[in-house]
């Protein structure tokens, strides 16, 4: 086995790990990035399926995601705007299909007013609590020990309003049922995006894409790092002490002074730490888990919905397919739709065989966009839940009570070991922007600590 000597070893070549490595090397520290997969990018992955380029993982950039925008520009990558011209489609709980303009679903005046009232409450909570230390707020325990579903039921008796609000946070973001996570976790999600209003504004949140795919960000950084990125190299053991670490992977052994675990928390247990991590870490990691979502890609010979005056944006909280968007690639004459089947609906979908699942999912496409949606030229399902080195989507969140109990400790280094992933970010939480931010912030901490140690 090859033995490598470095200042820092980074476990995971996703956006967080690669940005940490880039900044560390720029500061004069040597690095090695060990990646279990045969590619870089982590939960960003652009792949060609049956001749169609598809964004298998994370892909969008919103205007407030300044860290990611600046990085994309710095790397010389181009972006383009998501197609959004035309009307949107809403399928109500009773199956009624409506075509509408604007941001608000075409619901009754009473339901619309209730949605706006609840959005206002969540906006106030997000502004008051913030994203950096939600666990430190005086109401943290209160809001962390009640599920979003229970809180909504106590806040409003309008079931459609509750379902629609829950849709944005449960199905659209945390990809867990609304009874499975707390109000505090929901508020963190909202605060990390600036407000809950931002989360319900799909024109803001799903603004731009990278020409050629979001994975291009990681590919560009990996090209700069060259041989310091080692693929097909899952880390099996991390030996550590006050003097440094030794990371043992399938291909290499890296001796270093510091380590960065740049993988989601649910994968920490895939590494044997020697000596074992402290009790607090063991307990905390058991209270963090990823959600589940099927990301469905359907490519058509033409974007037929545009010809019918539709944007391709569809919402249907009660159907299996809850969201659909126009995801046509830059310069492509074909039309691509992307859709999402989250949490318990994904459970139900996976109970079906592949052919029946495709039939049922496309039937929901047709409910929103008509019979032409039944016959895509390319159909593909992104299933991150069965991907060995991810095991869920989009990112990790705490179970009830976990955020206020453990959040203050989630980034605390253990000796020379640091933690960095979008799952632990404040601004940009669970997004590529958050991965950029936390990767760079982690690098800065190590650089400062290293400088201090050298000065002593």
Automatic annotation (TrEMBL):
Is Membrane a UniProt keyword of this protein? no
- InterPro entries recorded: Amino_oxidase, FAD/NAD-bd_sf, Flavin_amine_oxidase, Flavin_MAO
TM region positions: none
Start and end residues of each Amine oxidase domain: 16-446
Domain of life assignment: Bacteria
Pfam families in the cross-refs: Amino_oxidase
Q: Which Gene3D superfamilies match?
A: FAD/NAD(P)-binding domain (3.50.50.60)
Q: Does the keyword Oxidoreductase apply?
A: yes
Where is substrate annotated to bind?
340
Q: Which cofactor does it need?
A: FAD
UniProt keyword annotations, A-Z: Oxidoreductase
The molecular function terms of the Gene Ontology recorded here are: oxidoreductase activity
**Binding positions for FAD?**
35-36, 235
Spell out the family assignment given in the record's similarity comment.
Answer: Belongs to the flavin monoamine oxidase family.
Name the PANTHER family for this protein.
AMINE OXIDASE, AMINE OXIDASE [FLAVIN-CONTAINING] B
Q: What is this protein called?
A: Putrescine oxidase
**Per the UniProt entry, what species is this protein from, by scientific name?**
Arthrobacter alpinus
